[in-house]
Amino acid sequence: FAGLADVSISEDIPVEGEITVPVASRSPDEDYSTLDEPVRDTILRDLKAVGKKFVHVMYPKKSSTLLRDWDLWGPLVLCVSLALMLQGGSADSKDDGGPQFAEVFVIIWFGAVVITLNSKLLGGTISFFQSLCVLGYCVLPLTVAMLVCRLVLLAGSGTVSFIIRLIVVVAMFGWSTLASTAFLADSQPPNRKALVVYPIFLFYFVISWMILTFTPQ
Amino acid sequence: AGPRIMAAPGGSRSGAADWGGFEDNMQGGGSAVIDMENMDDTSGSSFEDMGEMHQRMKEEEEEETEGEAGAAEEEDGEFLGMKGLRGQLGRQVADQMWQVGKRQASRAFSLYANIDILRPYFDVEPVQVRTRLLESMIPVKMINFPQKIAGELYGPLMLVFTLVAILLHGMKTSDTIIREGTLMGTAIGTCFGYWLGVSSFIYFLAYLCNAQITMVQMLSLLGYGLFGHCITLFVTYNIHFHSLFYIFWLVVGGLSTLRMVAVLVSRTVGHTQRLILCGTLAALHMLFLLYLHFAYHKVVEGILDTLEGPNMPPFQRVARDIPVVSNAVLNTTAKAVALTL
């Protein structure tokens, strides 16, 4: 373009022509654009998706809904509510109301990431976020257990309440582990399922331990 | 007649490369010529160039709109030209940002691909893991021939996590009020710190003593050596017998240490080197088990002291179920630990 630098047009020559800038045609997925819909529709749609996944977790069948349309809203809600409920444990002591929330949060997400990495390294076919989604949603039974434990603790904190809590937590722990293995184990080569199940078992065991040893002060 | 703009001729030119910068001709009189040479897509400074150009375009447009009384078509033409130019520049900015973003994404992706470096170390079957777990308790007899160490990381990693879980479980069975968060962080930090730190240290010593072992093999060896620790702690956290703990410490801990030591000896030449390497490893491994057992009590004691004040006599909460027989052991142990604290 070096030559064009010298080009100049004298003023008495009228320059005519049509200047049209080609406008990009409207993209074909204009129909699926969700920017124009009211916020309420978006929220309701997301809530419905989350609710459907909750149902899938409570009744684990071999369905791929959890895997196909993964989202992290449900795990976030569950994690935050579990961390909030676990926080009241030492509210009276002068320190940590805060760090406890952060510890639970970090442990849940760090544990989920480690399990996901482990399953990928073992040759899993599931993607990173799908695995996070499944592990997060399967915390739901343990959140329910936490709720039950808090209610039981309101009634008293003797041996009987401990036994009730122990039974509830163990049952929900088993449910969580079974639900998540139902979704995750399929993505592994068949002879290595045990290798993937074990860290999931440990992960939910640690969460169950946190729930069981919770005592409000 | 005000300055005219040479608009983009013809339809064949499509890319932004055809458009150029403006020469500075705010004073009017001359014609505005688009100079392509100022346009440099690859340099970051073209952002500033574009910013300037955008500014100049705006000012020129303002001049145009103020002073122009010409035919509507001409104005329309010029307006469209302006809009077209601005659209093109906007597209260029977007293009730049896309390229920067893509560069960052590909960098992140290559970081992700680094996980595949670890993949061969996780290539195990459950049967192999079980065999190696059992073998970690059996000392090898043949130390004149270098023993094979499987460079696998799945088993050791799972064992470290299991140790963390057992530590937490031990705190639960003591039935004391615990600040879970701090202890959890301590447990994780202790176990991982031991596994990674002692492995690195022994690897460094092995390098000094000319032993034939790689880092991954060392990590694997020490990791499987934690199996004995897991068993010991699991049993003794549920049965609070101090003498039982000592028996387990010697037998189970000793077996796993002997195995590690034998494997290392088989890979080292020279008596002094063997002594240094194996002595260090044995000492660290056995002392770690001792530390895990007693530090747990100590940590609980420390927290209890802060919670309930110094009124409580120390070591009162330790091992409530101990029968009278081992009280003497308990007292001596308590005194010994109190001395060391």
How is the quaternary structure best described? heterodimer
**Overall shape of chain A:** elongated
Strand content of chain B: under 5%
Give the SSE string of chain B: EEHHHHHHHHHH
Please give the radius of gyration of chain B in angstroms: 37 Å
Number of strands of chain B: 2
Count of helix runs of chain A: 8
Q: What is the chain-wise order of helices and strands of chain A?
A: HHHHHHHH
Structural class of chain B: mainly alpha
Write down the overall geometry of chain B.
elongated
Q: Give the spatial strand order of the biggest sheet of chain B.
A: 1-2
Approximately how much helix is present in the residues of chain B?
A: 55-70%
How would you sum up the major sheet of chain B?
2 strands, antiparallel
Return Rg of chain A in Å. 27 Å
What portion of the residues of chain A fall into strands of 2 or more residues?
under 5%
Low-confidence stretches of chain A: 94-99
Main structural class of chain A: mainly alpha
Termini separation of chain B (Å)?
95 Å
